[in-house]
């Protein structure tokens, strides 16, 4: 059933779309900032890619929100937390789900990818050699294969993307993070996972992502 | 400038709001599921609070998405990842920010609270006694005070809430998680932080949260 509204509607003037200015501050690496750089590039917006020298970090750290980077400045307003920033930008560029359930599915898989990265990072950054050695077996024989099998199966089930058969920021985030994950794990983790490999190719073939990857400064991690 | 729309608008019939059915599956504890229970309670919706016995976990784990709980079922559709679930519900109950920037600020502080919890959990669940001992000093003397001072300052700066001078799911999540954090840390972590203490009181005084806390099953963690 449909009702007719008899009152005439007031519409605001066509909004003048003024593009915000973006500045992203991080180490001179991909790390956890690369998903943000991928999403900004996908969105086709210019951003200041502010990379500081590692030796300046102790001096800079106290001035950062919660002592952390990446920090994104949007028209001068600062915010921390890489995944939160990625989600915010993804919503603006229309890659955060076509409905609330898809937005949830994307958030869930992103959180899972974050868990996966964190488990590898916990091993990689462990400073005690005996502890590191002890963690190595379970990580490489159980944890990493478990996550990759499940991630690969999810991409297969969803038509070549993590959610809903369409590109979302979960796909960009995963592919953007791969170099850092591989650097920490010292191996190409997706080597034998066909669906994840195809996803990687598909994302890196997006013209705006391709252009970003070609022009970004070199870094190992 | 304002334009007048000359076409009359079609409005859909008042939507018949059919409340979805919710079922939350988790250990018989607060843990990382309690924020979801708080948010569902705040939203005033009924949910099945499905708690399994600890000894059944090995049997149940393989059937869970990514081997994890909590799992929320919404009209039978299952999803994992506690923070993603909390955000999804919070949006429906109008406590996920009044604009996109606030949504981002809420996401950022939630991610920070998650980091804080994870750092305490990494120590609490460490099985190697020597490693645990080594981590204890830095955790309790540096990490915990650093986070709490910054969290307290943020609540002070934002009129008694984490974001925008108004209740959001970040506030519910923090207070819901406190019992679990205190259980792991073996101390009342917010003891000397006045703004966080006031926030806790304020949240626990919300009638629907009060009712939930009174009726929930007892658990230590």
TrEMBL record, chains A, B:
Stated name of the protein: glutathione transferase
GST C-terminal domain location: 99-221
Enzyme class: transferase
Keywords, comma-separated and alphabetical: Transferase
Record family assignment: Belongs to the GST superfamily. Sigma family.
PANTHER family membership: GLUTATHIONE S-TRANSFERASE, HEMATOPOIETIC PROSTAGLANDIN D SYNTHASE
An annotated Gene Ontology molecular function: glutathione peroxidase activity
Reactions catalysed according to its record: RX + glutathione = an S-substituted glutathione + a halide anion + H(+)
EC number(s) per entry: 2.5.1.18
Positions of the GST N-terminal domain: 20-97
One of the protein's GO biological processes: glutathione metabolic process
């Amino acid at each position: 059933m449909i009702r007719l509204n008899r009152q005439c509607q007031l519409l605001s003037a066509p909004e003048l779309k003024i593009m915000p200015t973006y500045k992203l501050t991080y180490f001179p690496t991909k790390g956890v900032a690369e998903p943000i750089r991928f999403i900004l590039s996908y969105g086709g917006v210019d951003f200041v890619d502010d990379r500081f020298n590692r030796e300046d970090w102790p001096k800079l750290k106290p001035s950062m929100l919660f002592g952390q980077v990446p920090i994104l400045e949007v028209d001068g307003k600062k915010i921390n937390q890489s995944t939160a920033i990625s989600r915010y930008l993804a919503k603006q560029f229309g890659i955060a789900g076509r409905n609330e359930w898809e937005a949830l599915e994307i958030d869930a898989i992103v959180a899972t990818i974050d868990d996966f990265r964190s488990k590898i990072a916990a091993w990689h950054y462990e400073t005690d050699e005996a502890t590191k050695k002890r963690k190595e077996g379970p990580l490489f024989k159980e944890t990493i294969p478990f996550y990759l099998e499940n991630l690969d199966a999810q991409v297969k089930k969803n038509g070549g993307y993590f959610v809903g058969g369409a590109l979302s920021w979960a796909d960009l985030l995963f592919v953007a993070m791969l170099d850092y994950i591989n650097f920490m794990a010292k191996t190409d983790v997706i080597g034998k996972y066909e669906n994840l490999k195809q996803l990687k190719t598909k994302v890196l073939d997006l013209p705006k992502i391709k252009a970003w990857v070609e022009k970004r400064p070199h870094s190992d991690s």
